[in-house]
Structures
1.
Amino acid sequence: MMSPDAALKRGGLALSETARALSTLAMMLSLAACGRFGVEGPGSPMQGAPVSGLEDRPEPDQASVLPRPTMHPADLPDVQEEIPVERKTMTEEGKVSLIIAILFDNNPYDERLTTAWGFSALVERGPHRVLFDTGGDGAILLSNMKTLGIDPGSIEAVVLSHAHKDHTGGLESLLALGLQPIVYVLPSFSSGFKAQVGEVTQVVEVAPGQVIMDGIFTTGEVVGEIPEQALVVTTEEGLVVITGCAHPGIDRMLQKARFMFGGPIRLAMGGFHLKSADDERVSHILRAFRDLGVESTAPCHCTGDRARGRFAAEYGEGFIQAGVGKVIVLPGG
Ligand SMILES: [Zn+2]
Ligand SMILES: [Zn+2]
């Protein structure tokens, strides 16, 4: 098992890689006033009305008792370091790096950012930036992006994992800025939602294995009571799979990703939907992770503290403490 840090440093890369990554994310932000947009059709996730029995539930008690991260100052050593613009997405060898920044999560990490129920992560691979999910609140999403120095205008595409508002709720504010990223949704999203977003920008119903950007793919719709898609990034050292809630089962979603794209799973991260799972279920998932050869993991959002503790114990150095503001850098992606 290679630790994430070891993986990050492999190939002679120094900690300043993290600084370069953060500098990559450090772009000037110009926020326009947020307003309502479009027509809200019945059943639209944007409307904000939770679907009875399906909406994710916050866990305020658990969220408030999570220990403060202790790694943060150490793994962000040279945040202020200036780097030449032309090198901003390249490693020493000139290979494209993969950078994943968690912009919205109910688990704390970077104390400057606001914690709220939901999930959103910015994926940067080479010159491309894809936003995976938008969190549950647009104002918080934009505020967190501003704090991290991320320009919303640099987002080329938005991929929505599933139709729950804690993953789609921030989209409205993003589009209200006048941005027109391509929005990738599941075919099963409501026609009202698709029509509403379609009034503003291009909406694409995903197909299995569809390319989002160079090296960035979707599994397509994984069927289940609540269907969902995962984002898959191919790297030289294996797959990076990001899930929003993993309602169809994190094991099933990882299996699908591996079946479709092959190779080891270098990193599995995001919401694993284990917050209400019993110990037996978590043990089953951990066995599946081992069987699938998942090398490192960064569970957050709806994984729940108990399951996160199990992953931490199982993975040791391969466990990445994730929360809002966590930036994961994978050189040579
Ligand atoms: Zn959900
Ligand atoms: Zn969720």
2.
Amino acid sequence: MPPPSPPLNMIVAVTDTGGIGMRGAIPWRLKRDVLYFRLVTTHFSEKSGVVREEAAEGAKAKWQGAGAGEGEGEGKEKGDGGGGRTVTNAVIMGRKTWESIPPKWRPLGDRINVVVTSRWESLQHEHAATTTTPSTLLFKPSLTSAMDHLAAVPRVDAVFVIGGAQVYAEALAHPACKRVFLTRVWRTGTGSVPGAVDEKDGRSTEGGLTPETRERASWDCDAFFPTLGSEWKDVPGAVEKVTRGRYSGAEGEEGGVGYKFAVLERV
Ligand SMILES: NC(=O)c1ccc[n+]([C@@H]2O[C@H](COP(=O)([O-])OP(=O)(O)OC[C@H]3O[C@@H](n4cnc5c(N)ncnc54)[C@H](OP(=O)(O)O)[C@@H]3O)[C@@H](O)[C@H]2O)c1
């Protein structure tokens, strides 16, 4: 009997119109979302439902420094691929999302990285030829095979699908998919966002900051997050709980980008 599938979490930043990317990249820049992404995907414990304690303290310091140049990129925290800890998290992504990560930041540090691609054999072979140490980077032919592999690794704790559109759609259809860490983003018009396109969405006020920012604008996107059905519900207070209350500001504004973190669960 194969081990049961691990629960699947998704993490995504999405506009009000469901946009997540444009021409292979993310059209906005949001350091605090990068820090949140790193904290949650590296340190969230599926067993406790919160980030591991020592991580929350470090995250608080980084969060406070975010405005002063911290968090430019995803980065590698310790560079040990999680090997120094007894448990590690894993991230699963599509080949295009993998290619969108700057080489200096990949594989994402302190997590097992699994890339889904039809060219998995040749990419795995190429990778094996360039590394002599046990690697935390794997190429797999499907989401299911990625999950089967991770289910058989005892030290894997939480598993995250980190994009893009194609893999999110597959994950959402999977019965193991139970939680979405969602960052809602919108343009506030208070900063300059290169390449951004005004596109008023006409939606209502949820998550806005001031009356002025409630009339949200978005970015031009060609990749979209699938629509979540009514069985997906916002969990009140979940962001504070998950981060052990160490993150000040589950919503805010940074460089012309408004954001609000949420955790949704399938009920
Ligand atoms: N806003 C966010 O939070 C966020 C997060 C991540 C990504 N993004 C954005 O999303 C966009 C990329 O999304 P995307 O949908 O174009 O690409 P993607 O999902 O990242 O990658 C698609 C590729 O993954 C492989 N793949 C997916 N499902 C597979 C399966 N069942 N079996 C085998 N291979 C499979 C295929 O690779 P092969 O062609 O090699 O077979 C496919 O071409 C980019 O703009 C990126 O910046 C945004």
